[in-house]
Amino acid sequence: MLQNSPVLDKELPPITTSITDTPGTPAKRPGFLGRLNPIAGLVLPGLLLVLWWYIAEVAHLLPVNQLPTPGRVWNTGLQLFNSGELFRHLTTSLGRVLTGFVIGSAIALVLGTLVGLLRPVEKFLDPFLQALRNVPSLAWVPFLLLWMGIDEPPKITLIAIGAFFPVYLNLVSGIRQTDRKLVEVGYIFGLKQFELIYKIVLPAALPYLLAGLRIGLGQSWLFLVAAELIASTRGLGFMLIDGENSSRPDIMLVAIITLALVGKLCDWGLQLVEKRLLRWTDTFKGR
Length: 287
Fold this sequence. Notes:
By secondary structure, the protein is mainly alpha-helical.
């Protein structure tokens, strides 16, 4: 009988080591990249800054009217900041991006959910949206001017178009990647259709949706420059174009650096939201 087995009568020793701890193997120390991790993101920008300084100020490989020195760009940025002009351009562009991003994402959330859940809606709507997705952003500019005038609506609409498609595509993919066994378990437990969507399908699609939101926010900043081509008198895109028209590459670089920094801050904010909403997941985090 099993209950009289000598193996079962023995008291098992407590397990004190993890799977990765093997006897005789010392614990791994963090390598150079691990120790560098807190400042790793600053290494490449620092190297590019040094290269820029060498090309523009030491080797003079390009004339100043093509590539100004880092010092000149810094002084121009300080002048624009102290005069308040940079802040006015920044707040205008930030308001346009956030408004267009929210509108485009909200529409994508509704349509993506319907297309992902309902096959008839997918057959009716998705081919049309996939065709529109391949239209270049600048192709919309003349029609938006014709339909909406030259005020804020065409700019915000163009940014919303840029935000819509990444959110829509990722959400539909996330819904379709939901494990079918989870849905069957929901049916077994008697969940109604709305409860099934709310408790199983949408949580399973949440990582895809958050990835789409991050891509959509980045697309919103990309579409901003095209949007501010539409008879704009303020904004970082206008500042970039104005620097080109006035042959001021230092102003152009200030606009580009500001776009990069603000875009990164917005993405970082969404990353924090993503980590908080997905803290329940147990996924591979990299090594």
